[in-house]
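Hi Y.,

Following your request, here is the sequence exactly as I used it, all 213 residues.
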Amino acid sequence: MLFVLGIFAAGSKTVEKDTDLHQLWSDCKLEGIIPYEVFKSAVAGRQKIEKPYKKNLITIIDYSKPSTQKRFFVIDLEKRQLIYCCLVAHGKNSGDNYAKIFSNENGSLKSSLGFFLTAEAYQGEHGYSLRLEGLEKGINDNARAREIVIHGAKYVSDEFIKKYGMLGRSWGCPALPVDISKEIIDKISGGSCLFIYADDPYFKENSIFLKTQ
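Below is the corresponding structure, written out as tokens. Let me know if you'd prefer a different format.
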């Protein structure tokens, strides 16, 4: 049975069935980088977002991977191209090398999962940063109140991994390598879709964007 997504533009083509979505995944050369099921969930969920997104991009963070692996991906759906692939940190209380525990609560120092819209970039405590709007009640809708933002951090680097065996951890923010964080923030800010994934039963059962997939 074909999985019906609803139609969205991806360059000159449209994607409306699982076979077409698999072709998009293949065209983006994501095999061995992002599991197909994770990509499918991200793109299908994006289609259910009622608030308009202004950029034909999708950012995927795959927290099922360890912090020592690249797990932050930005995909240009129009050009069918992976444009960024880099390290990303998770929250201090979500786990050590693997993020295993997630929260929407202020002060938890844990990462949140689910679908977000990127908002405005600003200069803050952690330098150039990007605010996120959580779209899932009870899962990530406290992101703004918690000040969960994308920012650069010195503890997100290959050198840190070599020294400590894993990345440093944030207070819940998806922190990026300093040398590329501003470039990525400028690319995805202002209304693009961000999907943060982990193999978490509560999230899979309660995400409003995954339930009907």
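The chain is about 25% helix and 30% strand.

Thanks again,
Q.
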